[in-house]
Amino acid sequence: MHVVIVGAGIAGTCAALALHKAGFGVSVHEAHPDSGADLGAFLTVAANGLLALRQIDVVPSAGFPVDSVRLIDRDGHEVRSSTMDSELRCVRRAELCEQLRSEVHHRGIPVEHGARLVAAEPRGDRVVARFSDGREAAGDLLLGADGLNSS
Predict the structure, then answer these.
(1) Cα Rg of the chain, angstroms
(2) In the chain, what percentage of residues exceed pLDDT 70?
(3) Are 98 and 37 in contact (CB under 8 A)?
(4) Closest CA to 95 of 34, 52, 35, 28
(5) DSSP letter string over 72-91?
(6) pLDDT (tens digit per residue) in 23-70
(7) How many helices (H) and strands (E) does the chain have?
(8) What is the dihedral of CA 144, 137, 118, 39, to 10 degrees?
(9) How far apart (Å, rounded) are the C-alpha atoms in residues 65 and 24?
(10) Residue 80 has pLDDT above 80, yes or no
(11) What's the rounded Cα separation, in Å, for the pair 41 and 89?
(12) Residue 145 pLDDT exceeds 80
């Protein structure tokens, strides 16, 4: 079985790594012409997310552990603070994406850049993804991980 994944962000690369580990054929197709790395903000990965990453043999190396949280009001006064009972890690989104993409590359999973999905259609017992540059990718399953404005 071959899975065509559209989107090489966190969701797409995690899906590619998990499906590849499970023995599926996988190809990833990304709209951005290069890595598409987002210099975006930090995100906190909770214990269940860290466990999921470990299941696909990825341990975030960037960022820092979070052991407490403080809520501050608009005047800078602490409203509440709490010690965290479970493992949390704060990472920059771009750094986690880069680590996941590096692992995808290391495992030899093909990634095509500049492939913006414009349509998907059934063809026999397969699904064909069509991209804006005329390329096509066929698979047994199409997984859309290309964001909120996905085709």
Answers:
(1) 18
(2) 96
(3) yes
(4) 35
(5) E-TTS-EEEEEE-SS--EEE
(6) 999 999 999 887 655 556 888 999 999 999 999 999 888 889 999 989
(7) 3, 12
(8) 50
(9) 33
(10) yes
(11) 14
(12) yes
The 10 Å Cβ neighbour count of residue 19 is 20
Q: Which two tokens stand for residue 82?
A: 């709490």
Q: Amino acid letter at 129?
A: A
Report CA-CA distances (Å) from 14 to 5, 52, 60, 114, 123. 11, 9, 12, 20, 27
DSSP letter at 140 equals S
Residue scoring higher pLDDT (43 or 109) = 109
Cα separation, 71 vs 64, in Å, equals 19
**Buried b vs exposed e over 65-102: b needs ≥16 C-beta within 10 Å?**
ebeeeeeeeeeeeeeeeeeeeeebbebbbbbbbebbbe
Residue type at position 21: K
* pTM of the shown model: 0.87
What is the average per-residue pLDDT within 83-94? 89
| CA separation for the pair 112, 4 (Å, rounded) | 11
What is residue 40's predicted lDDT score, i.e. its pLDDT? 65
